[in-house]
Amino acid sequence: MKEHSKATKRNLYKKREAYESNLIRNGLHLEATRSVSDEKIVFVKVHAPWEVLCTYAEVMHIKLPLQPNDLRKHNSAFNWFTKLFKVSEEIITPEQEFFTAPFEKDRIEDFYIQDKETFFTPATRSRIVHFILSRVEYAVKENVKKFGVNKLLDSGIYKAAFPLHDCNFNMKSQDSRCPSERYLLYKEWAHPFSFFKFQPLDLVRKYYGEKIGIYFAWLGFYTRMLILAAAVGLCCFIYGIKSKETCTWSKEVCDPNIGGSIIMCPQCDRACTYWHLNITCESSKELCIFDSFGTLLFAVFMAVWVTLFLEFWKRRQAELEYEWDTVEFLEQEEQPLPEYEAKCTHVVVNPITQQEEHVPYTTFGKCLRITFCTSAVFFWILLIIASVVGIIVYRLSVFLVFSATLPRTVNGTSVQAIEKYLTPQTATTITASIISFIIIMLLNMLYERVAIIITDFELPRTKSEYENSLTTKMFLFQFVNYYSSCFYIAFFKGKIVGYPGDPVYWFGKYRNEECDPGGCLLELTTQLTIIMGGKAIWNNIQEILVPWVKNLISRCRSSGKQTVLPRWEADYLLQPVGKLGLFYEYLEMVIQFGFVTLFVASFPLAPLLALVNNLLEIRVDAWKITTQWRRMVPEKAQDIGAWQPIMQGVAILAVVTNAMIIAFTSDMIPRLVYYWSLSVPPYGNHSSNTMEGYINSTLSVFRISDFKSESKPSAPTLFQNLTICRYRDFRDGTGHEHQYEHSMYYWHVVAAKLSFLIVMEHIVYFVKFIISYAIPDVSDETKSKIKREKYLTQKLLHERHLRVVKKHLGGLADRILKGRDNYVIHKED
pLDDT tens, 316-327? Predict the structure, then answer.
């Protein structure tokens, strides 16, 4: 599509004319049509005839049908159940399966050609045409060839280039030759009322290509696997609610005679004052829900679940590779990027073929590019970490404000309900989490552009290499951006705080944050809920509203002169997909996958939230690409690319993070140590194993007279006669020989935490290894299909050569082929 303008320079017209002339020389048919709504706009329709399709199908090594697949299909025992959720075969006819081979014009008789119009699917036609458009020259300057429609689009010579949809999404085509696949996809896949149906993946692949199909196949598989994780997580949550009623240590915190009589030391200098422990009554009750024995079991279950998910997805991916003919795609079909080819000015010798090849840079130049790109990535990651430090400083600063304004005592008759829930720690956590979420969203917009600029400079050879490189960079950015605040709360906050008489300071100014007496687990849960839930809501609103509003504005502008627009003009009014396609959809889901696995020990409802979001996400993405976006150029893809090893790395890291959350963030290990050591002096003298007195055992004693003058609080009238206060730690009390040093009980707890961490990691990793070894990446059935196809393909092509030999040699060929009259004629000059 091009736009005429008086201000356009003459050389732009020359480039356009040269480009279109070269397209015609390459065999394409062009037809120009003026817009019905804007006379300045001209659409150039491109058509590839049969000869051009055959020529470039051979150049691109496209695999095409040889003969129908004659392998038997094994019916599943659950077919009766899955039929309830499948789209009726009368509505969407199942695709016929074929044995395929890379196309060769010399062997065209061997391929299964019933109709030349349907032999090349619309997706294949679009791929071939886009391949030509990306490589045709439009100018030669200083012996450097300039080519490709992408360059012309970037310079504004053309406004857009896209394949056409086959019909309106909400109306079936009246043309009997049109399959109306877009209409079927909208009705049976993208429509909200079809949310319970299985995805018609074969039709998605046929219409949009394998790359889009593999994304929705992965997303659907991930969502189905989340059903089990969500069910177990919900049971764990319900167990936590039930155990809340019998939570002894929470009752002690809320008891006016226990928690109400314990005076806690200030958690900041001067501005803070003393406070009663039972101010944290409500938060301790909520903590009982998430910090229970069920959490430990759920963390172990999720470690096994993520391994099963990844292993079963490999098997499913292998099936799709066979069914969609992408088993050997990377080796046979993928071509270099036009941007890469345009800069191939250096000549090198290929060590394998010993032939000269052109590359865009020398070995030294490649090392320089890699060094620069790596340094740039680390620089921007450090900037993200700097923003996290800024949030920490905010937390330290605002805690002083909340401590001075919010109540620190609880009087059941005089304090309002909101004051029971809104403690300084809670207020700081909520505001910091909201600000952190806003900063994350803002940084995302910046780092997306930075990652693209760095990857463009790196100049990868193929589209897969480009996307894998960009994927790695973007995930590193997003990993630090999204998870850094959670890592801080889980593993750093409240771990190095000293004690009231000798606190630890940040930058020599800000006193390090402390956790609630119940620990930081509830704060981590709050952070995860806000970031994960806010991200899901924001992304879905953005994905629905932004393209819909833009398309509405475009339709309003063009509907004044013409109510019925031709297909090419209606598609032009839709939103462009962008160069990266569904890259950001993958990124969104993998970030969610990290939340579901890395910190699930603190939030067992994370899989349930992810399941609900994904059920909506599938239909939103389907609705978006079917109704709001221009049709994407179909692309081949063998797998989900770099996202697979990224998820494997996240799964390995998740075992460590969850074990550390249980060991160091939750209060489970100290409670177990206390429970088992009650009958052993000096830690307890109870004859029965109960949790009575646990809260008192976790609080050390500090003498108020030992406060330093610069940190001593101004005690209100209520605390004028106070001589001691309590703080969360295991230290020897006043009057002890080693006053304020860690007690022996502290080292027992540390030993128990480290022992738990080592044992849990080794057990879970061993189970993961056994599962990975027991489940092969490719099923035996798929292996048999691949071998069968290769055998039949070779046999078919071999028989073709035999027919040619027989045709030329006549009866002599029969005798030779039957093993008779075998001889060799030796000729000497």
Answer: 999 898 888 887
Residues 119 and 220 in one domain: no
Higher pLDDT, 399 or 511: 511
488 close to 496: Cβ distance less than 8 angstroms:
no
Task: Give residue 412's pLDDT band: very low, low, confident or very high (50, 70, 90).
Answer: very low
Count of other CB atoms within 10 angstroms of residue 240: 22
Q: Identify whether 589 is part of a domain.
A: yes
143 domain-assigned? yes
**3-state SS assignment for residue 290:** helix
Examine the pLDDT at 581 and tell me if it is beyond 60: yes
Whole domain around residue 801: which residue ranges?
A: 780-817
Q: Which of 712, 735, 756, 252 is nearest to 517 (CA)?
A: 252
Strands 505-506 and 510-511: antiparallel
- Residue 829: predicted pLDDT: 47
* Lowest model confidence (mean pLDDT) among 129-138, 324-333, 705-714: 324-333
Q: SS3 of 311, please?
A: helix
Q: From 670, 703, 718, give the residue that closes a domain.
A: 670
pLDDT digits (tens, 9 = 90+) for 749-807: 999 999 999 999 999 999 988 998 888 888 888 888 778 777 877 777 666 666 666 66
| Rounded CA separation 362/23 (Å) | 33
Q: 594-597 contacts: CB < 8 A, separation 24 or more? A: 594/479, 594/482, 594/483, 594/650, 595/482, 595/528, 595/531, 595/532, 596/226, 596/229, 596/302, 597/302, 597/306, 597/650, 597/651, 597/654
Residue 713 domain-assigned (yes or no): no
Q: Which residues contact 696 (CB under 8 A, 6 or more apart)?
A: 252, 258, 262
- Judge if 581 and 642 occupy the same domain: yes
* Distance separating alpha carbons of residues 165 and 171, to the nearest angstrom: 12
Q: Does residue 221 share a domain with residue 125?
A: no
Which alpha helices (DSSP H) does 624-718 contain, by range?
643-660, 668-676, 694-697
Q: Is the peptide bond before 682 cis (omega within 30 degrees of 0)?
A: yes
Residue 424 has pLDDT above 60, yes or no: yes
pLDDT tens profile 100-125: 888 888 888 888 888 888 888 888 89
Written as six digits, the tokens of 776 are 């092969």
State how many domains the chain has: 3
Distance (Å, whole) CA 342 – CA 149: 13
Greatest Cα-to-Cα distance within the chain, rounded to the nearest angstrom: 123
Taking residues 800-829, report their average pLDDT: 54
d(C-alpha 43, C-alpha 115), whole Å: 29
Interhelix angle 463-491/643-660, rounded to 10 degrees, is 10
Please name the residue that has the structure tokens 């194993």: 689
The answer to whether residue 687 scores a pLDDT higher than 80 is no
Angle 817-821-822 (CA atoms, 0-180°, nearest 5)?
70
Query: Which residues in 705-829 belong to E strands, given as ranges?
Result: 724-728
756 part of a folded domain: no
- DSSP-derived secondary structure letter, 724: E
Identify the helix (H) or strand (E) that includes residue 35.
Answer: none
Model pLDDT, residue 415 = 40
| C-alpha to C-alpha distance for 178 and 620, rounded to whole angstroms | 26
**Helix (H, G, I), strand (E, B), or coil: what is residue 190?**
helix
Token pair for 682:
């000096």
Please calculate the CA angle 78-82-84 and round it to the nearest 5 degrees.
130
Model confidence at 688: pLDDT above 60: no
- From CA 181, how far away is CA 167, in angstroms rounded? 8
Whole-number average pLDDT of the chain = 79
Contact 488, 520 (CB under 8 A): no
Contact between residue 214 and residue 654 where contact means Cβ atoms under 8 Å apart = no
Which tokens in the block code for residue 203? Answer: 């039709």
Q: What is the pLDDT of residue 167?
A: 84
- Note whether 791 and 659 are same-domain residues: no
